[in-house]
Amino acid sequence: MSDSDPVPSVVDAPAPASRRAGLLRLVPAHPLVSGFTVALGVILAIALSATVASLSTVLISVFLGMFLALGLDPAVQALERRGLRRALGIAIVAVAFLALMLVILFVVIPATVRQFITALEAAPEAIAAMQGAEWYLALEQNLGVDLGAVIAEGVKSVANISSFLAISGGVLRAGFGIVGAISSFVMVVVLTLYFVSSLSAMKQTVANLVPAYQRKRFSELLEQITGSVGAVVAGGVTLSTFNALVVLVIQLLIGSSVPAVMAIAAFFITLVPLIGSLIFLLIGTVGALFISPGAAVVFLVLYFIYIQLEAYFVTPRVMGRAVAVPAVLVIIGAMVGATLMGLLGALVAIPITASILIIIRQVVIPRQNAITRAPDA
To answer: How confident is the model at residue 97 (pLDDT cuts 50, 70, 90)?
Structure first.
């Protein structure tokens, strides 16, 4: 080869056939049709998301009704173990649940509203008495902040009905919100009664969707999951009921003007495992400060003692082995659920976590243990 002959370069070399085939695969044969298909898929996904968002209230009602039904199912099974037929057990549980909902609707809620209104009317006097206490003056001096102005502004904004209506969107929207809450409550009650009566048929229908050779194993796993979720829901409601009763007694003992309000708040807050009781410990102590520092100390001590008794004696007997979930997963699940769906998400996070652990322990781990040789061997 002479010096004048061109030297072949890598740039001028033809691309390998595999690279050209890869480029052809990246470029669609019909770009217009492919682009239209992708755009149509995006539009359908957005429409589906908007539909789900508009049906969020209905979906939440169905979800909540199913969870309540799973929580009532252990009571039905307990009546079956006592020799009653399932239909009769369902009827007894349904009547008891309906009676409880009527008591809440016509007795508990009106009493709570009356106490809340009374507390709002007495709030200025209570705040004035608290601001004249020595401990309040000392705290204000140490912080260097005019707490009186802050509290007065907060009370003024809360008590101002025009501000409330402005925030809620006006009288019409507030009225629609109340009507929607009542209708959602009735819907949840109806769905719960329906799911309780048809839970066995629903599980059988779901099992029929699985191939016959896997149906028995799937049914056993489904029974474990629904049993675990039902035990979690029933145990959580029972513990929160005990907690609310204890709070009611302590509030009456320290002379609170809103014992029913605090008890109902304790019931819903302590439905969140582990952290719910600690959160209400802080809320109840701060609320008792409006009565007196001594009342706050009494509430703090008595409720803290109950938390310890609940953790070491009440919870193991109520929950049993229903939830074999590590404490760290309980906290993480509650935080994730609260971030995604608020209080409802925090409540359902523990049953969902327990169900996932059952699937991992019963399906994933045995399948991995069955693999004793490497694939390439």
So the answer is: confident
Q: CB of 330 within 8 A of CB of 353?
A: yes
Candidate from 22-31, 99-108, 174-183, 217-226 with smallest mean pLDDT: 22-31
Q: Where do the H-state alpha helices sit in the chain?
A: 17-26, 31-54, 56-81, 86-103, 109-131, 134-143, 147-159, 161-168, 171-197, 199-208, 212-253, 259-269, 275-288, 293-309, 315-319, 327-359, 365-370
Tokens of 269: 């807050």
| Mean pLDDT, all residues of the chain | 76
At 211 the three-state DSSP class reads coil
Residues 6+ apart with CB under 8 A from 136: 130, 147
Alpha-carbon torsion (332, 333, 336, 341), positive or negative: negative
Q: Model confidence over 108-159: pLDDT tens digits? A: 778 777 777 777 777 677 667 666 667 667 766 776 666 666 666 655 555 5
C-beta of residue 198 within 8 angstroms of C-beta of residue 69:
no
How many angstroms separate the CA atoms of 216 and 134, rounded?
71
> What whole-number distance in Å separates Cα of residue 181 and Cα of residue 43?
32
